[in-house]
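COMPLEX REQUEST
Ligand: magnesium ion
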Amino acid sequence: AQVQDISADKAKKAKNMAFVFDIDGVLVHGDRLIPEGKRALEILNGDNELGIKIPHIFLTNGSGKPELARTEQLSKILQNPVSTEQFIQSHTPMRALAEYYNTVLVVGGEGYRCREVAEQYGFRDIVVPNDIVAWDPTIAPYRVFTEEERASSRPRDFSKTNIEAILVFSDSRDYATDMQIIVDLLRSENGRLLTVAKDPVSQRIPIYFSQGDMLCPTEHPIPRMSQGAFRIGLEAMYKALTGVDLERVVYGKPEMATYKYADEVLASWMEQLHGEERIPDNIYMVGDNPASDIIGGNMYGWNTCLVRTGVFQGGDNDEANPANFGVFANVLEAVKAACRKEL
Ligand code: G3P
Ligand code: MG
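STATUS: Structure written out below.
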């Protein structure tokens, strides 16, 4: 009976803890699995002494594909199920903006996949930079526009269209073209191309970025510049050209709105898993980037675990944003340590 009591107690504790995983630099590098990630997820999916599922969600600043396509790809790489209902990528909370704007410019990502993302979020009239280049190639003087791109774009007369907001969903594949078009729109009268507003502020359309990471770990040995670097370049250019600061909204980690959204996702995932919609008391965020995962988790009152498989390449702990639960060689070590503490 005593043994039964101990496992019942542990099972109760297991239901009162949850993990929030960063993806790039923790579970994968690009499309390459970090092997300890697979094992960590197996443990949480029930391959543990209690045979119980420990709730976990994924909170990534990654972007560029519809949620379903990305979770299917991740399930294959991680060899563990990843559901869209436990998955938040940088632009997921931006679906709420579909209610406010009719015509939007969506920037970033491969091919036309971000157009697809925006369609799924319910945006009604979606423009991508290639639609604008196809209308007037002189807008981007150094751009080489292929026939294939021309064939798949949707040009119209953008001097007669008001673009109501700019949404940067993912990394720009062509900084020169995207920055030119964004600056043109920000300086225009209410998002109408071929106009330049006299007052740079009153007729300026809003701009939203899906995340602010400066760097992203990839297959390359040194982390690559990400959307935050693109934004800072844009802000500097805009300021130099107009003399005013660019107001903008940034989503993703470590912005508070994203953590609040994660709480909602976690609560409904808890309901699916354990039949009770509540936020567990002990939440562990496992991340590799002190400037996004760790600072955000610390501010939000989560236990934070910093791993050495991604952006962080420092000493005992990060100096500016130290992980409050500790620094670990990899995600498996972090998961084991958290389970040892809580169970
Ligand atoms: O910085 C871009 C993105 O790939 C980072 O993803 O999973 O580390 O938040 P993640
Ligand atoms: Mg990361």
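REMARKS: The radius of gyration is 22 Å. Residues 22-25, 60-62, 213, 216, 226, 289 surround SN-glycerol-3-phosphate (ligand 1) (CB under 6 Å).
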